[in-house]
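Notebook entry, structure prediction.
Reason for the run: the old model in the group folder had no record of what sequence produced it. Starting over properly, with the input documented here first.
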Amino acid sequence: MDINIFNYFNKFHELEVDIHRIFPLTPYGLLVKENAFKTRFDHALQQYLHSDAYLTLANKWSIDPNLLIKQ
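New structure, fully documented this time:
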C-alpha cells in the first residue's frame, strides 16, 4: 500500500503497526515537449512546495511535506 494512503486512513483508526519499507520510493515525473513550459512548471511547483498551501494540504493528507522537496 502507498504509505501516504495508509497514513491518511490510519489517522481515523490509530493502528499500532510496524512499517517495513521493502521497495524504494517511486519517483514520479512529468514529460513535456516544450522547454519553456517545463521551466514555468518547475518554477511554479517549487513555489507551491514552499508555500503554506502545500503544508496545509500535506498535513490534511498525512504526507511528509519534505517528500517532494529536493534537498
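Summary: The chain has a mean pLDDT of 85.
The old model has been moved to the deprecated folder.
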